[in-house]
Amino acid sequence: MAITTRWMGPGFDLVSGAHPMDRLFEQFFGYGARTEEGGIPTHALPIDIVETEDAYQLYATVAGVPEDCVEVTFEDGMLSLAVKAVPLEIQGKLIRQERLWGNWSRKLELPKEVDSASITAEFNNGVLTVRMPKAAKAKPMQIAIGATDKPVQ
């Protein structure tokens, strides 16, 4: 299941991290356990995003998933995270299953000031960290005017 989240766009609720219509559909269709009332489903790749002076940092918990089953892509201003979690081969009768397996993805619209050519990702101890540096702001500059001896035509 793909969940698309706008990056603090129109209708975005900073507290719960979801659009009101997204929450309404999730409540109606019952997409599983939530982190708290009104939060996004816990199986929807929970993320944290931190803004610093020079970058945005995204942290996604993907514990128990090998690095080669995690994919990060960027296209048309959208950062995509995709995870393929496979079930463990279990010997015996399964009494309770809470860990989810399958394919999950998230798409996030990035702020325009992100330098997309410098985005990096690291995977360490089940946490994916994506660093998205802010682009250098355009600064006014003085342009030197050179003299020439050529006649004006």
TrEMBL record:
KW Translocase (keyword) present: no
Stored Pfam families: HSP20 (PF00011)
Keyword line: Stress response
Residue ranges annotated for the SHSP domain, each copy included: 38-148
UniProt superkingdom: Bacteria
Repeat recorded as keyword: no
GO BP of this protein: response to heat
The name this protein goes by in its record: Hsp20/alpha crystallin family protein
PROSITE patterns with a match to the protein in the record: SHSP
Entry similarity comment: Belongs to the small heat shock protein (HSP20) family.
InterPro entries the record matches: A-crystallin/Hsp20_dom, HSP20-like_chaperone, HSP21-like
